[in-house]
From TrEMBL:
The keyword Hydrolase does not apply. This is Tagatose-bisphosphate aldolase. Its cofactor is Zn(2+). GO terms for molecular function: aldehyde-lyase activity; zinc ion binding. NCBIfam families: cbbA (TIGR00167). GO terms for biological process: carbohydrate metabolic process. Zn(2+) 2 binds at D110, E142. SUPFAM superfamilies: Aldolase (SSF51569). Keywords: Metal-binding, Zinc. Zn(2+) 1 binds at H82, H190, H220. Dihydroxyacetone phosphate binds at G191, G221, G222, S223, N242, V243, N244, T245. It comes from Candidatus Azambacteria bacterium RIFCSPLOWO2_01_FULL_37_9. The active site is at D81. PANTHER family: D-TAGATOSE-1,6-BISPHOSPHATE ALDOLASE (PTHR30304), D-TAGATOSE-1,6-BISPHOSPHATE ALDOLASE SUBUNIT GATY-RELATED (PTHR30304:SF0).
Length: 300
């Protein structure tokens, strides 16, 4: 998948919009994302977490996305999301090697659970390894901790002051590691929980002011944040937004509804269509809110 992923984010910076990363567990979900991207002529990122890519297969995910790219002409990024999420016991970078060999054109290394210096060390190594293999690859690092997980829960999440990304540290982190993108903790969380997320807009602005010459900002936990808050965050410099839980929920609820109405159905292409349609609605609304519709362009 050889096109400049950097150009993709540079355009988002110039145009003041954010590119959506939509997490997918299956080919059906990838199809839903691409259909909307095509309809709205939007740049999109297909995200696969470690669990999602394990289920799909690394090479299979790459080939699937490549085939859509060839067919649609859209610049579709395939991002390995939260690689080494449990980085506490990290020994080597075998997982990164496997992703690069398979052909992923974007990697998110998540060293957020590591002590700062360890995070810097491993993230720098990942950047070096990725750029040696493919200078056009886009690498995301993470600084600050996000509570929660990509599911719907009634729990209340705890936000400790130490979770939040410090603007000064963020500057040092991007300068030393050389990441293209920085995932930040600014009141966002993974999943949909009891309380609505409250973004720290002031912090987003301060971090962006510091790092904008080096890296673009990424907002994880895009589910459940009010549209108006998302728009404000984009105005303050967020250029990539990750969405998973809302997609999972839409897909699954539609499937459950389908079987309540059609308990005898056994043909996958029939019962999966409702899920694909439901997921498309969520993706479409997100792309409109992110302002990335019509931005796929023809220059890739
Ligand atoms: O990396 C994936 C995202 O941060 C997903 O977050 O499940 O809250 O949408 P979400
Ligand atoms: Zn995330």
């Amino acid at each position: 998948m050889n096109f400049s992923t950097k150009q993709y984010f540079k355009k988002a910076e110039e145009g003041n919009y954010a590119i959506g990363q939509f997490n997918c567990s299956s080919a059906d979900q990838v199809k839903a994302v691409i259909l909307v991207a095509q309809k709205l002529n939007a740049p999109v990122i297909v995200g696969t977490s470690e669990g999602e890519s394990k289920f799909m297969g690394l090479r299979q995910a790459v080939k699937l996305v490549e085939s859509y790219q060839e067919e649609t002409g859209l610049p579709i990024i395939l991002n390995a999301d939260h690689t080494y999420k449990d980085a506490k016991d990290i020994q080597n970078l075998d997982k990164i090697k496997a992703l690069l060999d398979a052909g992923y054109n974007s990697i998110h290394f998540d060293g957020s659970v590591l002590p700062y210096q360890e995070n810097v060390k491993w993230t720098s190594e990942v950047v070096k390894m990725c750029k040696e293999k493919n200078p056009d690859i886009s690498v995301e690092g993470e600084l600050g901790f996000l509570p929660g997980a990509s599911k719907v829960s009634k729990e209340k999440l705890e936000f400790k002051e130490e979770y939040f990304t410090d603007p000064e540290k963020a500057l040092e982190f991007v300068k030393v590691t050389g990441v293209d993108r920085l995932a930040v903790s600014v009141g966002n969380s993974h999943g949909i929980s009891a309380d609505e997320p409250k973004l720290d807009f002031d912090r987003i602005a301060k971090i962006n002011e510091k790092v904008r010459d080096y890296a673009v900002l990424v907002l994880h936990g895009g589910s459940g944040i009010p549209d108006e808050d998302i728009k404000k965050a984009i105005l303050l410099g967020i250029r990539k937004i990750n969405v998973n839980t809302e997609l999972r929920a839409a897909f699954t609820i539609a499937l459950k509804d389908y079987f309540i109405k059609n308990p005898e159905e056994t043909t996958p292409y029939k019962y999966l269509q409702a899920s694909i349609d439901a997921m498309q609605k969520v993706v479409e609304n997100k792309i409109i809110v992110f302002g990335s519709g019509g931005k796929a362009g023809s220059s890739f």
